[in-house]
């Protein structure tokens, strides 16, 4: 409907914004200046202890410096009470004592009808509450006692009882002159298909009233007393008042509790919410018999930026969590996410609190994990990734899931988190080969823990020294010019580092290269300590490398990475051929073995530059790393030994 000019301004004048907001917050009087209309309080829209929520009465505007909520009188009512604009105008007009302008007749009639339905629901609620104290409700009261629900809790949550008769509520409401049409439209009765009187929807059930954010009773949930009943829990049918997918049980009280600093907990059912709230977790809500919907998520995020989904720790609870996750992914953005708290298997919040007390529930909440962890768990749990095809399928599934996130910045952070988990799952192993008792053998060594030594890369004896240095040049180049990394990401991931420190740095480079040099260095220092960077960049061969001296030159960095990775690949090819030769020589060997080894040795020589005249070494690039004649001789000795073994066979 259209409003006459000046009507909204008059409303704002009659009721100050601080009056409206003051019903939802506790003002910080040390920071506020009442005389100037300058008010501060903890934000009612997200959890915080400091007063970052500001109200300017002179401008009629509020702003939160934490979650960035902002707006006018009407915006505050719409966000805090989940109202539409006209409902917010009506609520403010009622507080100001101003009559609303004449509406469109049909709209006015519709609003009057909804108001009438809400009054009928309140009459039904009073009837059900009265019935809980009647003789027919003895079993229901005994059940509630067994569940630990005190009289105070029953009053707080307005628990009632629907007797087993077919027309108990119908007759009661008709006796109060409630029109038949209103009872049917409120979803309290159904017409008979046998030509008899309509019959009550709820019979022989413990009744839980469902109120909207404004406190109106809009529906009921009923728990069957008969164990053979087809439906253990039954909700009201959808009506003009009640939309199941847009409603939350305990919405209003939970929003108020969260505004006072409590967490917003999404449980599965009525009894869980009641148990949580009674144990001091007042910010508990529940969807109404279905998985969490898009609209319910929007309602949750209006209350807080990171609700906790607390579900039973069984397979059904985990499936429900994953359904919620997939509903949330396309809606998420910075400041809007979920955490998941899985309870011990076989227990719901009510069971856990009654068995172990509120502290046990708090421990579960403290262990709540972010949505990205659940996404990883869904993609990997119960699966084997022992082949390239299976690993590729994992990558595809995760990419498809992350693509659902519309916020590009958030999507990138999810990609970084998934990369880190993936590297932990497929952490490279170091492969060593050697000869013992006349036989070649393969040894697998897991990468070592966090390195702390500042030893030189060339301090260790053996053929790995130059490889370790070459790895260092590659990593220093990647850190100095991160924009060159994407073209070599796959090769870097497969680079089998011969030094644990190099392996750890390589993983960080692959996770953080999107964020630039400084972010990578900061993560390396935080994760591995400052000595890691010192060791990487302090060696003379690394320090004089052109890519380190001239950071940011993308073409130079790409050429260096391509060259160094090619040489590592050639060297690794020779090692693989020698390793395979051991297996083949244990059976029937032929000339193909020595041919492959000779070819692999030649590949190493082709990857190297011509020998320098003064030192007799094979120069492998401007960084100064070399394959020495001694090392080449070692490979030739290995080859000769294999040829000798073959002749002996």
Secondary structure blueprint with pairings:
Blueprint: H1 7-14, H2 17-21, E1 38-41, E2 53-56, E3 61-64, E4 70-71, H3 73-81, H4 85-96, H5 105-131, H6 138-146, H7 151-156, E5 160-162, H8 168-175, H9 180-185, E6 189-190, E7 199-200, E8 205-211, E9 217-224, E10 233-235, H10 251-259, E11 265-266, H11 270-278, E12 284-285, H12 294-303, E13 308-311, H13 315-328, E14 339-342, H14 349-356, H15 358-366, E15 369-370, H16 371-380, H17 388-402, H18 408-425, E16 430-436, E17 439-445, H19 464-480, H20 489-494, H21 500-512, H22 517-528, H23 530-538, H24 540-543, H25 546-549, H26 554-585, H27 591-607, E18 618-619, E19 626-627, H28 629-648
Parallel strand pairs: 11-12, 11-13, 13-14
Antiparallel strand pairs: 1-2, 2-3, 3-4, 5-8, 6-7, 8-9, 9-10, 14-15, 16-17, 18-19
